[in-house]
Fold this protein.
Amino acid sequence: MEPRSSGLVVLVLVCPLAAAVLLQLFGRLDRRLCMPTALAACLASLSLTGVLAGNVARGMPWVYHPGNWGGLGIELKMDLLALLFCLLIAGLASLVLVYSYRFIPHELAPRETSYYTVFLFLVSGLLGLSIAGDLLTFWIFMEVMALSAYVLIAIIDVPHAFESSLRYLFMGALSSLAILLGVVLLYGAAGTLNMAGVLGVVRAGANGQATLALALCSVGFCVKGAQVPVHFWLPGAHSAAVTPISAMHSGLVAKLGFYGFARFIFFVFGTTAAVGVLKMTSVLQWIGALSILYGGIMAILEDDLKLMLAYSTISHIGFMLLGISLLSPAGLTGALFHLLDDGLAKACLFLCAGIFIYRDGTRSIQQLKGIALRTPLTAAAFTLAAFSLVGIPPTSGFVAKWYLVLGTLQARRPFFAAVMIIGAMLAAVYAFRVVFYMFFAPERSGALQMDDVPPAMLAPAAILGAGTWVLGIAAIWILPHIQRFVASLVS
Amino acid sequence: MSQALSYFNLTVAFTVFIAGVYMVATEHNLLRKLMGINLCGAGVLLLAILTGFVRRGQQLADGTVAGTNTVVPAMQWLAVAGIVAITAITAVGLALARSHKRVFGTMDLDEKRNGVKQAPPQSTPNATEDRR
Amino acid sequence: METNSVIPLIAVFLPWLAVAAIAFLPKEEQRLKKIVHVAVSVAAFGLVVSLLPRALDGQAFNFKLFSITDNLRIALRVDTLGYYFGLLISFMWMLATIYSLRYVDHKEDRYYGFLLLVLSFSLGAAFAENMITYFIFYELMTFGSYPLIVHEETAEARQAALKYLVYAIFGGSVLLFALIAHFYWGQNLSFNGAGVLSAASISRAALITIFVAYLVGFGVKASIMPLHGWVPDAHPAAPAPASALLSGVILKLGAFGIIRVVFNVFGVALFKQLNLDLVLAIVASVTIILASIFALTQDNLKRRLAYSSIGQVSYILLGLGLLSQDAALGGVMHIAHHALMKGCLFFCAGIIIIETGKRNISDMEGIGFRLPVTMLCFSVAALAMMGIPPSAGFVTKWLLGVGSLQAREGFFIIVLMISSLLNAAYFLPIIYTAFFKGEKQPLGWRGETSKAMLWPTCVAAFLVVFAGIYITMPGLPYSLVKIVVRAFVGG
């Protein structure tokens, strides 16, 4: 169906950008203005996306051609994939902002204004790369996102954070440049930057340049998605950051590196080219499988709660990479859905971890023993999300796992089905270990009391925890759209 | 001829790019690592500019034949964006490196690890106000 | 005959009322809460019973909840087999809930909350229309019963519950694989029909893979050796009513899953054609003999009962493995008969623990004088387990024996005989110790124990005998199972 043009598309990402500028201008007057302004911007993006949703769900994407660039093919495009992620990004960012309202003064009081400003840049970067319709716009917004991400990790000002942020910066910059090199090569091959345009040329007959470009982009995105063996920057970066930022990183930033990969594989190279020319997918499958197992095992060995979650992120991005590189419809559906559900679950888990840090100052899993007596609601939210992480029905994690494993069978690779199942078992071990310590550890004393943390922190965690279950049910309405979308890609 | 030229371009650009990657991977000093990233970026930009240059008589992307030696606007735009991004990365990297020096007393990762210098001065809560 | 009915749905979700009561009633209202719990369990039983006349006519009740795709839907369909199991579940739960009133004296909110949730999930599993619905309820039931096992919170209970969980996660993962493989190759998960897989379109290797994966997945719950490890630990650790339900219902959910696989997924003809019936019969026989031998060596009463359960559940599988008309009849009827007998035995063991604190059989000298009614019930149920007529146990053993002759596999009669001998060898000493060892005392008829515990025990013991005499009475297992077997096995 014909895409329709609307300026609203560009407004979605202008909102946080404008708010960031406003914050720098006026935020210093009164620090209490920062959070509401940022929240208003994110909610505005969210509602704008909501306005655009109806048509997209009916199969008509929105496009917008900024400026009059004519032949360059610069384009913003809100298709179903972009829509889902914009909703996820704006929604998650709003919740994290609410959470930050009480958490941030506690952790980095003097830098509140900077925090919210950079946070908004991060959000606009994420939104921008979701709705980019051409390679360069995609790359630019990816850089906006990455730069904000480096800064947000270092903003906490502890020695460990600088080290982690630097390591992240070096890896991130190299991967970005590798991807940019790939983009240049693609332009050389196709003569346009527009994703649809490139796709047409590459499908017609991929040549050496396109092959090289895919190789470079794959490496770049594997670094961004922290896959084995280039994963080492992630655990430090995710655990060193302030907790709301860890939630954003793990829930969105690391995933969006992967999201980019999905875009490239399916929109730029087209599956046929990727399969036919490259034979590269089997390498990627193995990388994904290794990451699943590596992340899972390391998470089990870890005692630091945030580090454990960071390793779990590696494992779950491995699921997505494996799902997508199988190039089967079900695998792709599962990978895309997993992106959504793991975003919610990881964000929830990190926010809960933040509540424990805020309250008790501890990150050690051993010290969480019996904490459910003191923070029952937080522990409950954590448990809900842990169920989704493991993929117990009827959570959204189960839906994703269902399609991922189905995808391995469709691709006739039952071995990887076993890997995924083992990965899920590992997830059960590391996630439920925490749950047991919280609820059933022997070191419990005292009477049950309600959580004495601010509701502004509790509510986002609870909403996300419940969201993982609601999404599992709502999958009934979301999945047909994703499947239709995937069918249009794979055929 | 154009095919040979394009291979030449690729080779040059990749050599510079790989040199940058090598630098980031092996150097111990943060500033040198950042320079490595710039070198990488130079490789990419080089290829962008070479790709964007179209000689008289060659076919453009839209099928027309270039009347004179031209540069493709898309690649110019890409190069500009790339320069801005690399500058920004360098700026953030330098700021981080400075903080690293403030906290650990050195910009050299090797020195930090082996403790050549005396024990690093601890960062104090007061030192966190670092706005400029 | 198919009718749409909302009653099964109400029965499944009615227990949530009790959870609501726990959540919203004030803490002091323990008495009112208990009334709600009992009322809910009685009402659930009543609702299921209200369907009895129509179920006896062979009617099936449909209720579709929602569908994801055409052949992937969440729906309830109470066919005769499901109805039979649902009736048993709700009845056993009613007894156990009443029994718990006196037995459980700490953490009541948690206990009753999960007790009734597990009722909801188990009923949902029994009434499931297809394998995915079954799986979802089954997994929820698995995790919901964890708090029941860990309830006492002693070190050994915690250990046992952990073991349970490890086994359950392993089983669940394998089951998920089985389910996805079934969906991928079979494209139809429905229980509606006698066999949805066909050898024409699916390779033999795939069919066997599916069956083995199902057998292992459900086998963990049905405690097939060597997957039984959690059973002897979990039963002694759990409170007596929970043990009764574990043996009576939760183990059976595994066996019930295998019944569904044989009758509805593979269909009897295909099952025989693949020679899987012999595999199942041999696995079951080994388990029966080994479990009985292990039971002999146990001094802890509940542990001995647990080993007995492992063997007895395999009777059900043996009936399926023989798959002649009478063997299937006996096997499926054994679900209910064993639940009554073992329920009664565990109720008795609970009374002994509460009234005398004794857990080991060697300490129980002369206990029959202190607890005459209890030990009388115990003796009735124990004799029934050995297969002494007239009792429920005799009926099923007789049917299995006749069935093995019908199937021309007389070898299995020897298994049954050895097993009966071993049953006698481990049950008779208990009765002997209770009544004939130690000093004679006056019988303590009065004030033996509280009525809430004694009555359910007596009812169960009465039914054990009653079902052995009035075998064909409508509503008792035979009347329902007859319809099932006629539909699936023929005759």
Summary: DSSP finds 22 helices and three strands in chain C. Chains C and B do not touch (no CB pair under 8 Å). Chain C has a mean pLDDT of 87.
